[in-house]
Amino acid sequence: MRTVGPGLLAALVIAAIGFLTVPMLILSAPQEPVMGLVQKIFYFHVPCSIMMFASTFTAAGGSIAFLFKGSERGDRLAHAAGELGVVFGACSLVTGPLWGRKAWGVWWQWDARLTSALLLFLILNGYLLARRYGGPGGRKLAAALALFAAVDVPLVYKSVDIWRTVHPQTTVVPSLDPRMRPAFWASFALISLVWGILLAVRVRLETARATLADLELLVEDQMEMRT
Q1: Is pLDDT at 1 greater than 50 in this prediction?
Q2: Residue 169 to residue 125: CA distance in whole angstroms
Q3: In this structure, is residue 169 part of a structural domain?
Q4: DSSP state, residue 37
Q5: pLDDT, tens digit (0-9, with 9 covering 90-100), for 40-60
Q6: Residue 10 forms part of a structural domain
Q7: Residue 45 in contact with residue 88, Cβ under 8 Å?
Q8: Percentage of the chain exceeding pLDDT 90
């Protein structure tokens, strides 16, 4: 049985330290004068949205390797990343309305950014459903959906610059108050690290499942030969 490697162990230790220190940085960061305490959701919402994008691109990259090279490793990477895209997408879509309720007075607006982000989340869910219920061709169908999801990512990101929306534009992070930047970048680094840990663990799990399936087939073949 494979044990936790030193790299993964070090990442877990750093993440544990981050969970103790990053909330303190967020609490000590100055409050936004209009939204007050609710604005601090920003430190969680934006990194989760970025991790949804990263998951989508990773799933698309693995799917390309699977579709054009038959790479099982790429397919396992795509599967793990697709699941994380749904997880971090859900975090983004939950924290966004909590923040928007204070900023806009409503929980949801059907503007370009929110609608395209919801579409991306639904495509990622479709990816997982296709893998599970798509039959013999389910993995290839899912891979095509991963590529379609990757095309939607630039639309989600640039939608606030192309169309008039209530969502803040992409200049929010570059123009962030310097006193808020340490908290934001620390939060971003921590969530990115957690994403990387989860991805590595899920890929290892998928690899172990594939190895187990191969061993079961080998045992079945040997039993048939003996009979």
Answers
A1: no
A2: 27
A3: yes
A4: G
A5: 899 999 999 999 999 999 999
A6: no
A7: no
A8: 58
Residue 171 — φ and ψ, nearest 5°?
Answer: -90, 0
pLDDT of residue 34: 73
CB 158 within 8 A of CB 170: yes
Instruction: List C-alpha distances in Å: 152 to 12, 89, 180, 224.
Output: 32, 13, 30, 49
Q: What angle do CA 101, 106, 107 make, to 5 degrees?
A: 65
Q: Classify residue 19: in a domain, yes or no.
A: no
Which residue has tokens 């981050």?
18
Backbone φ and ψ for 126, nearest 5 degrees, come out as -60, -35
What is the DSSP secondary structure assignment for residue 137, as one 8-state letter? G
Q: Is residue 212 part of a domain?
A: yes
Instruction: Please tell me the total count of domains within the chain.
Output: 1
pLDDT at residue 227 in the model:
65
> In which region does residue 70 sit, left (phi positive, over 0), alpha (psi from -120 to 50) or beta (all else)?
left
Q: What digits encode the pLDDT tens for the residues 142-194?
A: 999 999 999 999 999 988 888 777 777 777 788 888 999 999 999 999 999 99
By residue range, what is the domain housing residue 213? 36-226
- Assigned token pair, 49: 């949205």
